[in-house]
Amino acid sequence: MSNQFSVGADEAARKTGAIDSVVASLPLSLAHATAQPDIVAVDGSVPAWSERAQEALDSGARVTVIISPTLMTGLAPQATAQMVFDWAFASNPAVQKAAEAATALIPHITLLESRLVLPAGADLDQSLMDQLTAIAQITGDSALAPGSLRCLFADQHGYHFAGALNSGAPVTVSAVVSAATNPHLGIRLLTVEESMTVYIPAPDTAAPAEVRVTTHEGELLLPTEYEAAHRTTWRRAIRLLTEETDAEDYAQLLKTASVLRNRLDP
Questions:
Q1: Could you give phi then psi for residue 9, rounded to 5 degrees?
Q2: What is the largest CA-CA distance in the chain?
Q3: At 183, phi and psi to the nearest 5?
Q4: Which of 151, 208, 229, 235 would give a disulfide with 203, using CB separation of 3.0 to 4.6 Å?
Q5: pLDDT at 2
Q6: 170-177 vs 184-190, strand pairing mode
Q7: Which residues partner with 83 through β-bridges?
Q8: How far apart are CA 248 and CA 68, in angstroms?
Q9: How far is residue 48's CA from residue 263's CA, in Å, rounded to a whole number?
């Protein structure tokens, strides 16, 4: 019989991370807490999220789920191995599928570009970390060196970064705030003979992500996985408890942040 773990969350985390719907969709594994929860969700938009997460762990929680974290301003938390990050786009299972497909392309990339479309009011700092995390997971941690991306433009309407992979291939990372189309993340890898495109919709839609690989033989749509980013994150948190493994999300955040020469301030 599978274990059921109790869940607690502050109001902001419940709304942003769709906690109620996740718990309802995983009834055999998760239930709302009546006392001390096993897993506590924390709103990552506040600068002190790391302190709140550490406080939850010190109070008895076994795992914390950080909803779309920003970069921290305070002290680094102690129990980072028990912290799982829930990203709106990077947590989508299609990212892992794209990473597997990109393995053969990485040494031959001639251009990497990514564009994120966001709704009005979106936190651009969170969104940038989310976007870069997805790119890093697909290309591998070593593809982008520390300080390799420079901010060319940033305001309340979006941002644009440019840089290069370690191989020398140019990289562009941009975001635009717009209501003209649904929020989504797009990533494209080009080589001389092949390409891969990744389309990831926002987690509040039922539309699936798509990963397409194009070669001289034609275009291949990789098998679609109908799983939302939020549910994928909570499945990871459950595995953390049942398999007693450690999370590496915090270390990933630090590596992601290190590629920025400057952040949203040209």
A1: -160, 150
A2: 58
A3: -60, 135
A4: 229
A5: 67
A6: unpaired
A7: 64
A8: 15
A9: 19
Distance CA 30, CA 23 (A): 5
pLDDT tens digits, residue range 158-193? Answer: 999 999 999 999 999 999 999 999 999 999 999 999
Checking phi first, is residue 27 left (phi over 0); if not, alpha (psi -120 to 50) or beta?
A: alpha
Structure confidence by residue, pLDDT tens digits, 185-237: 999 999 999 999 999 999 888 789 999 999 989 999 999 888 889 999 999 99
β-pair type (218-221, 210-215)? antiparallel
pLDDT value at residue 1 = 39
Of all residues in the chain, what percent are helix, strand and coil, respectively (each to 5)?
Answer: 30, 30, 40
SS3 (DSSP) at 119: coil
Cβ neighbours, 10 Å, residue 231: 18
| Full DSSP string of 138-201 | HH-TTSS-TT-EEEEEEETTEEEEEEE-TTS-EEEEEEEE-SSS--EEEEEEE-SS-EEEEEEE
